[in-house]
# Entry
Amino acid sequence: MKLPTALVLLLACGSAMPLLAQSSVRPGTRAPRYLIRNIGTLSSDITLGVRGQSINNRGHVHGENTLPAPPGQGKIHGFLWDGHSQQHIMPLSPSVCFSGGMNDRDQCVGYSFAPSSNLHAYQWDAGLSTDVHCGSLNFSKATGINEIGNICGTNSRFVSGYIVSQFRPYIQDPLGAWIDLGTFGGGTGFAYALNDHDQVVGTARDATEATHGFIWEHVTGMVDLGTLGGAFATPYGINNFGQVVGTSSNQAGEFLPFLWEAGVMGSLSTLGGTEGNAKGINDYGAMVGNSTDAAGVQHATLWATGSTTPVDLGTLIRPGTAWDLTGASSINELGEICGTGTLAGNQRAFRLTPILRRSRLSGAQPGMAGRTNTVFGLGFEPGAVVSLAYGIGLGSTPAPGCSSAFFGIGNAQVTVNAVADADGRIEVTVDLPSGLAGTVLYSQALETANCRLSEVRSQLIQ
# Structure
């Protein structure tokens, strides 16, 4: 679906708006409450652990499950949870299949034992695991996949000046071509995540074999992220605006969560302790991870959009659930979070969905002009017909068919309808014209039967 011609003309006549942080137009001053869902387990032994790795804008979760195995023989398999049940991600060869990243198309990557006991990167798509090994030696792992299917990870190869093979960070395109991202002069590096601009983050060694966090892109190559004053930093997440999160040591040797943007690394507060790690960041700047309290106990942690102040996610779910949320690993553009905790003493993966007063849109994802994007939404009445409206400024526009309802967008242009599924979610594709680049686009949804309006969402189109 293309955006309406009237909106395209309006954009052409007006100047681009200033670069603003993406957000709901009227964000709450307090962190939301959440509904927690147990991902479940693939194992007949409920004491074996389940871990949540990544969440996409469909609310689906990718992770891994420990399974029964003979003593001394570990057995781990990946899964995709679709909101109702786990789909088993089978390894390339029996035994081990570690989880990695996932995109909005439910394509999952990780690494698995392959024939001859080699560890190879895999891609799982619609029930099929495919070997996507790259590199000159028999080791590779995939840790991230973006919306066009490019994969980042780590493989191994022999490097001049080193007697043994070295781990190397890479990016691979859907046709199988791969690029060695290099290092800062040392032998080894690792890639952990990438975004839809093919920016990759990870760690690499210098000529003294000291480890540095990096951000890499095709134009600039590898850039050192710096530290919080200590010896090294490890980045784990990056959004489409090039904001990077991870953990870094400071001068006192403490490991603290950080946010890096525009060449500057800043620390994020903990829950009162001396350790923390930021693992994921969405395009609205909300971050999740873990941090310790004053007693040294680790908790799943949220740093809301525009804030470095931490919130213990365990305090935002209904009391008495028997959950202990120890870490959060990923957050989507709707504000849903996945992670790992304990439920009645057993390690389990969870999904947190914000309890909304009004339905919510993700904005067009990945938010790039000149290509097809997808709008996701949640909090609608199941089966409701939903109309989407767009504009380039706030204001008031009568909602068609609803005399008492007004979009919070000036000169809003209403597009095609969608139908909410049984979970109250919508998913609509839109083609964003190239002229939208650099413009702040506002979006809102209307349930046509009851005239309920969603939150207004603003996003900077890249």
